[in-house]
Inverse folding.
């Protein structure tokens, strides 16, 4: 399956005063046209770094190995204008829209600026297009909104403005880094509805980064679970959520309290989430895994195809047989 | 139902708070039974955090009455002794584990400081008690001796819980205390909270926006919106058969597999 | 020195201070330490009496036992520089200590109590800003007669608003942090919270500021002494020496003014550099990278 985005064996190392620290290792992931892929993980798992690698928004001095192909082009080779074009064509939205918008300029300035500079569109025409994209994200009175300032808009509304801004570049792929994490749950539902509709109407592919496995399962076609800079499991969202193959995915699902019933005790994972640079030899999850065997500590499992997806666990088949047996 | 026969350990009556023109909390009344666990659920701007801050004295109510352990605490304390006594009755754990601890003080010293403030225990007895509290929240001696910068978010939050429990308060307010934690750490802390309640009989006022977490920890739920209570009842009833449209909306907005997010087409300024 | 070591201790929670100071900062600290040591052991190094005047040696060239030569009154320059180092370092030290103590006390009280007291304090500080320190010191000298004590006191008062303003805003931010509020909720007294928690956590900022102010104080005090309103003759002081050497400059013997001025410049630059280095890391001196917080349901 050749997708709009192909990441293969991406390894990113950041320089630190002491020694280079790995943040991603051997990340492979593909996104098909129009597909939504969730990237789920705890802090330090490398999910944001993966998204940033795609548009090469990495800290200075970062060393990148492996390949990232967007529409067949290796983004690692892009420089100057070509890189700017990539960033414009693969827009990113963030957790905190307020940090990414100039507070002293109007929504109209923000939306039309890129069009008028890059697209060489006249003011009136640019504003018409801005009103149209605002309509697409469910903001009806776009004309009035264009004259407002960011502080006059609620967080949910501002996030929709950010989404509208990304549409102006007619993207095929959208990178969303925890775009609803700071929002209230009802506002989150609205923003997710907007994203969902846009994806369907425009055939937009999306990489959706979240710490919330349930949210990813709800809105993404496929979900990848990351831990310590590595992909642990990639599968169709529903299957991954209901019948996880990797012990880490299973542990994450079990640790989350349920809305339906109160558990006697939550199933916890001992220890704390590790970052790539702290990960042990062998399987990065071995120290916290309830199913660990001696082999897990010495051999690092590769991501390999299994049932409807991929999993990086030496004992996956065995565990699946046991749980279904 | 047996709980309702008992005298409530915390009672809020007609609580109101305004900031200038804005009404943050409007006519909030609720009771917390001894060793009970009541959750206040709501979104940002619902006033739930303001309620918590009024109970612990960080904000002064505009109107209404707060009674904890049978004593009124609606007005600021008149004496140092009164202030300490209130501190020994109601404690709070905040949301952010990273600024909840003095960066220059080890957890052990922080807990010991509270013991010195509230008790007349001897130094060896204080050290024993610190160890007991550390054990209660699942921290090792090594953790208690480290500086906060060496601890993870979950560990810090457990320190904050241990510190809050040091004076053996009857009421512990948890203001979004697990919201900033990773899922696997959140589960550990929620289990710790369940253990602590069972072993010490402390009552929880649990403030959260996360309905699944609330279901796990609370017996009763109070739903707040725009500063007022819109619904209350046993947790299972409120979550399974929400009565108020807003509670239903909250419930329907929680993502789950097969969930289709919906647009309400509501336009707010 | 006390300032530097306090900061080094304060920094133990985070990464090492040495890394933050860098080579330049360490060099600056080295210069300061050297100056302090020389000022302390000066009398041992030179046998000449700094105040012994021998007019036959006026503007005399370096000679055996007098490696820097003599000033216009035939006094040994080296021993005058070394004794001058004492007043030139002790004066600013007093200024910084007094103004810091007063400024911090005022700022913390205003920030903690808030309300009308804070407003009154802020207004008074605004008024005090209007008085330049040097002018105030000269005014005091004019009224009470010249002398080091009067100048030190006047400059200390003039520095208070600058210190108070900085500490007040830092204290306001710090007292809103949950760890301080948790102690308030516990019922701890304001005094104990401030002394045991608030001020120690402001110490890195305070130390950086104190180091910077030390260099300002040196310059200001030198100016006052230059005009003859600070340290009184025959006592040696670098500022006085720059002023006293004026006639020598005119007669083609600039050694006294140049040497004393050079000492001031080197130390001022050193204190400035160290202060800059200490304050540079401040905003990022949090012991751990700030982690995002999830959905804030705060009301």
């Amino acid at each position: 399956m050749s997708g709009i985005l192909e990441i293969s064996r991406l390894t990113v190392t950041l320089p630190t005063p002491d020694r280079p620290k790995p943040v991603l290792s051997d990340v492979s992931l593909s996104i098909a046209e129009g597909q939504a892929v969730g990237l789920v993980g705890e802090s330090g798992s490398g999910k944001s770094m993966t998204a940033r690698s795609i548009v090469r928004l990495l800290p200075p001095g970062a060393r990148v190995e492996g390949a990232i192909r967007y529409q067949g082009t290796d983004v690692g080779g892009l420089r100057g204008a070509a890189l700017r074009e990539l960033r414009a064509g693969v827009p990113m939205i963030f957790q905190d829209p307020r940090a990414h918008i100039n507070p002293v300029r109007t929504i109209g300035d923000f939306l039309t600026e890129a069009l008028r500079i890059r697209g060489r569109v006249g003011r009136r025409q640019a504003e018409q297009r801005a009103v149209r994209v605002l309509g697409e994200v469910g903001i009806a009175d776009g004309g009035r909104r264009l004259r407002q300032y960011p502080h006059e808009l609620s967080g949910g509304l501002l996030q929709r403005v950010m989404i509208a801004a990304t549409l102006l570049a007619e993207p095929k792929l959208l990178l969303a880094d925890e775009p609803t994490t700071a929002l209230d749950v009802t506002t989150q539902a609205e923003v997710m509805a907007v994203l969902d509709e846009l994806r369907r109407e425009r055939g937009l592919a999306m990489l959706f980064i979240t710490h919330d496995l349930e949210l990813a399962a709800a809105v993404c076609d496929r979900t990848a679970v990351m831990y310590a800079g590595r992909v642990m499991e990639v599968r169709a969202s529903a299957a991954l959520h209901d019948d996880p193959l990797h012990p880490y995915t299973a542990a994450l699902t079990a640790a989350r309290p349920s809305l339906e019933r109160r558990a006697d005790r939550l199933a916890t994972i001992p220890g704390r989430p590790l970052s790539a640079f702290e990960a042990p030899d062998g399987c990065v999850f071995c120290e916290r895994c309830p199913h660990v065997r001696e082999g897990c500590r010495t051999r690092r499992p590769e991501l390999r195809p299994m049932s409807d997806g991929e999993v990086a666990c030496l004992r996956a088949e065995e565990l699946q047989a046991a749980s279904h047996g | 139902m047996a709980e309702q026969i008992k005298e409530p350990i915390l009672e809020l009556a007609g609580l109101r708070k305004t900031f200038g023109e804005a009404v943050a909390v409007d006519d909030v009344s609720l009771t917390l039974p001894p060793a009970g666990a009541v959750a206040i659920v709501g979104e940002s701007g619902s006033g739930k955090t303001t309620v918590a801050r009024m109970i612990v004295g960080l904000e002064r109510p505009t109107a209404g009455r707060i009674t904890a352990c049978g004593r009124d605490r609606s007005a600021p304390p008149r004496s140092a002794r009164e202030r300490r006594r209130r501190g020994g009755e109601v404690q709070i754990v905040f949301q952010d584990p990273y600024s909840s601890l003095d960066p220059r003080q080890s957890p052990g010293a922080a807990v010991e400081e509270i013991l010195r403030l509230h008790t007349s225990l001897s130094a060896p007895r204080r050290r024993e008690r610190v160890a007991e509290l550390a054990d209660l929240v699942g921290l090792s001696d090594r953790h208690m001796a480290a500086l906060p910068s060496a601890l993870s978010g979950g560990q810090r939050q457990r320190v904050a819980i241990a510190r809050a429990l040091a004076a053996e308060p009857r009421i512990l307010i948890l203001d979004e205390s697990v919201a900033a934690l990773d899922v696997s750490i959140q589960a550990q802390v929620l289990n710790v909270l369940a253990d602590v309640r069972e072993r010490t009989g402390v009552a929880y006022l649990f403030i959260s926006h996360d309905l699944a977490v609330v279901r796990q920890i609370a017996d009763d739920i109070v739903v707040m919106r725009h500063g007022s209570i819109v619904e209350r009842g046993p947790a299972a009833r409120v979550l399974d058969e929400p009565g108020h449209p807003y509670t239903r909306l909250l419930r329907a907005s929680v993502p789950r597999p097969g969930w289709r997010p919906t647009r309400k087409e509501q336009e707010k300024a | 020195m006390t300032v530097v070591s306090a900061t080094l201790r304060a920094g133990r929670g985070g990464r090492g201070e040495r890394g933050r100071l860098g080579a330049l900062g360490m060099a600056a600290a080295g210069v300061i330490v050297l100056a302090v040591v020389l000022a302390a052991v000066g009398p041992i190094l030179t046998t000449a009496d700094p105040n012994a005047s021998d007019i036959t040696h006026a503007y005399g060239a370096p000679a055996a036992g007098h490696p820097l030569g003599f000033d216009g009154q035939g006094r040994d320059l080296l021993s005058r520089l070394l004794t001058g180092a004492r007043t030139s370092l002790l004066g600013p030290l007093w200024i910084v200590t007094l103004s810091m103590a007063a400024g911090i006390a005022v700022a913390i009280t205003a920030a903690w109590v808030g309300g009308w007291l804070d407003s009154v304090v802020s207004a008074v500080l605004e008024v005090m800003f209007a008085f330049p320190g040097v002018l105030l010191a000269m005014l005091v000298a004019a009224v009470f007669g010249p002398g080091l004590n009067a100048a030190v006191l006047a400059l200390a008062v003039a520095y208070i608003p600058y210190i108070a303003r900085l500490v007040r805003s830092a204290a306001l931010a710090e007292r809103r942090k949950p760890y301080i509020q948790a102690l308030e909720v516990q019922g701890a007294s304001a005094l104990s919270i401030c002394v045991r928690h608030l001020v120690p956590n402001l110490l890195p900022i305070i130390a950086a500021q104190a180091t910077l102010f030390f260099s300002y104080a040196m310059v200001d005090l030198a100016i006052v002494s230059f005009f003859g309103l600070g340290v009184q003759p025959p006592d040696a002081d670098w500022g006085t020496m720059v002023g006293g050497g004026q006639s020598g400059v005119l007669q083609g013997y600039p050694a006294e003014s140049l040497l004393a001025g050079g000492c001031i410049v080197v130390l001022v630059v050193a204190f400035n550099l160290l202060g800059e280095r200490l304050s540079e890391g401040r905003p990022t001196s949090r012991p751990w990278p700030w982690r995002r917080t999830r959905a804030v349901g705060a009301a």
Summary: Residues 124 and 130 of chain B are 10 Å apart (CA to CA). Chain B touches chain C through 58 residues (CB under 8 Å). The first strand of chain B starts at residue 10 and ends at 19.
